[in-house]
C-alpha cells in the first residue's frame, strides 16, 4: 500500500471562464480497480512559470495509490482519498482531478456486502455535503451531486440530485428537509423541489410532513425555512389548549425581533375564548465587557366566571368570580466588573399581588410569598480607601388582614427604601495619614475607618401598635395596610422612617503574650440621626398612651470597649494502626470582657419612663420606637463572655505508600455564653451549643441548642441556679434544632469535572420556555438528595420538649435507560402527617425530539403538562402540548 502527497501550485490570470460541470469520463479508472497502478507525478502543472486557473494550493493524498495521466492531465486517487483547496475539502474512496476541464469527480466504493462505503464528503466553509457521487468545477464553483445529504445550520437536506451554482445557491430535486441527523431521519418535510440560499433561507415547493415514514395530510403549496448564520426576526407559533376558567386558548404567539447585535425583543400574546387576554414584551440586551441584562413586562386579564369546578379551591388567590387584571415587571441588569469603574446593577421583580400564583408555572415563584427588588450604583477605587453606593429597594409580601366585616382577606404589604446611601472609608493606620511607612510594628495594628449610611424607609403598613404611630402600654395593636394610591401617599410618607447612621470602626491591633496567647483590645462608636422623636403621656382613666411627635434632627449614640484573650490547644493521640495513624483534637478557648454604659438613664434622653396602667406600674419606652437606625439598649453591661471551639481530625493512610490524608471527625463543637456582672438578676446567660459533622464523608449533621442554667417554678423562671437543687443537672435544654442531609451522585463521585465561565458575547437570545428535558443528563445513572429537619422547644409548664416541626424532603432523578429518565421532588410534614409540594417529571429522549411530563399530583398548585417538541431551535414550534391546572377541569 502506498501513501503519496503532492502539492500543485499555480497562478490564475485573466477573467474566469464559464466551463460547465461535466460528468466523469467513461474511460477513467473506477474505484474498484486493482491497486497495481504506477504513481507518476505531474510534469507541467508544477511549473511556477505557467499561469492557469488554480487560485491557491491544492493538497491531495490517498491511502492506496495515486496515478497521473500526463497526456490527458488527469490525476487518479484511490483509497481514503483527500483533497484540500482553500476552504474546500473533499474525502472519498475515489477522486479524479482533471487539470484541463477544472473538474473534480468523486464517488464511493462497494464493499463485499454490496454496501457503499467511503461516500464522498464535501466541505465548503460551514457547508457540508455527503453523497453517492459528485462532480465539482473548482474554477466556476459549480457542482452536481447525486444522492446527497447537506447541512444548512441545524437542518439537513437529503436529495436525489443537488446542483450548486456559482453564487452558492443549491437546488435539490425530490428533497427532504429535517433536523434529525440520522441517515434515515425520524421525520422530515418532503418537497419535489427545494432551493437553499446558504446562511439565509430554504425555500421548498409543494411539501408535506412525514413522520416515521408515514406521510401526513399536513402540507402547503410552498415552504419557507430561515437558516441564517446570524439571528433573524420571525413569527412565533402559539400553543393551543383549553382551561375551565379561560376556555380554548392560544398562548405565547407573536413575533421575535432581532433588533441588532446588542438587543432583541419578543412580543407575544394570549387569547381566551371565554374572554380575556395576555400580553408580554421581553427583551435581552448586552454590551461586551460592559453589561448585560433582560427586561420583561407581562399583563393578563381573566374574565369573571361562576363556573368553578367541583373540588376547586375558593381561596381568593384562585377565585375568578370577579374580573382579574394582573401585571408583572422583571428587570435584571448585571455589570461586568472593571477596576475603578462605577457599577450599576438592578434586580427587579414586582407586580400584582396574585400574578405569580395565577400565571406562573415555576414552583419557586408560585409558592413564594415575598419578592424583592433592588437598583443600585456603587463605586470604589483600587487606589483610594473611599467607596460609596446608592441603592433603591422594594419588597412586597402577601399577608392576611381583617376587613370591615371581620373577614380575613389577603393584602399586599409594600416597603420601599428611597434611597439607601452609603459612604465608607477603609480602615487605615494613623501612621499612613502622615505619610509614614508601615514596617510591621504592633502599633500599626491600630486602624480607624468610617462608614455612613442614610436611608428613608416607606411602607403602606401603618402601625397602630407598639411601633410607630400610637402605641399602647399594655396591649398590642394591629397594623393596618392601606392601598398605595394618590389619596394615601401623603399619609404613607408622613410615616416614613428616615435615619442617618455613622459608624467608626476602631481596631487596636493584637498583642502576643508568652508566645501562645493573643490579646486584642477593641473600641467602637456609632451614632444615628433621626428626623423625629416621640414623647409619651398616659391618658387619664385608661390604659392607653398618647404620643407626641417632635420633628427635627435628633441623635442617639452609643460606645463600648472591651478586650479578649485567646489561644489554641492541641492534643494528639498516636494510633499507628493499619489505617488510622493518629487523631488530633484542637481546642480554641476565648475569654473577653466588654463594658457599655446604661443608655436608658434620663441624662441621655433616649428613653422615657411612663405609667403603663392605673395601678401606677411604669414602663421604659424608646423615644425612637419603630424608627430605622441604631438605638442603644437600656441597662448597664459589664460582661465576661466565654467560648470554647473544638475540632477533631483523623490522619489516615491512603493506598499510596507513605501518603496520608486528613479526615474531619467533628467539624465544629462550640459552646458560648456570658456573665453580666452589672445585672441585678439572671447574670448568667443561656449556654448556646452547636455541633456539625459529616458521617461517612457524605451525610452532614447539624445540631444546635440552648441550655438555661436557671430554675423554673410553675412555668416561671426564678433567679436560682438549677445546680443549687443538687444532683448533676447543670442546665435545662430549652430548644433544639436538628438537620441532616446527604446527596448522592454516582457519576459525580466517579469523575469530577470543572467548567469555566462562558466568554462575554454580544449576541443575546430569548430562549423558549424550558421543560424538564432541558435539565436531564442521561449519562448520570441516578441522583438522590435527602434532608431531615426538626425543631423542638421546651414547655415550661410540663417541663417537656415539644416538637414544633419535623419535615423530610427527597429529590433526585433516575435514568431508567439511556432514553428514559424520571426526576422527582417532595417533602413530608412528619408532625402534621401531610405531604407538601410534590413534583414528578418524566423525560423521554426521542433523538431529534423530546418528550417531558410534568406532574404536581395534589395541593393548590395541582396540575400536569405533557410536552413533545423538536429539539432543534429551527423547528421548536413543532410541538404537542396538553396541560391542566389546579383551577381547570380534566380534558
From TrEMBL:
InterPro entries from the UniProt entry: LptD, LptD_2
Organism phylogeny: Bacteria, Pseudomonadati, Bacteroidota, Cytophagia, Cytophagales
GO CC terms in record: cell outer membrane; transporter complex
PANTHER family registered for this protein in UniProt: LPS-ASSEMBLY PROTEIN (PTHR30189), LPS-ASSEMBLY PROTEIN LPTD (PTHR30189:SF1)
Region (Disordered) location: 17-48
LPS-assembly protein LptD central domain sequence ranges: 202-710
UniProt name for this protein: LPS-assembly protein LptD
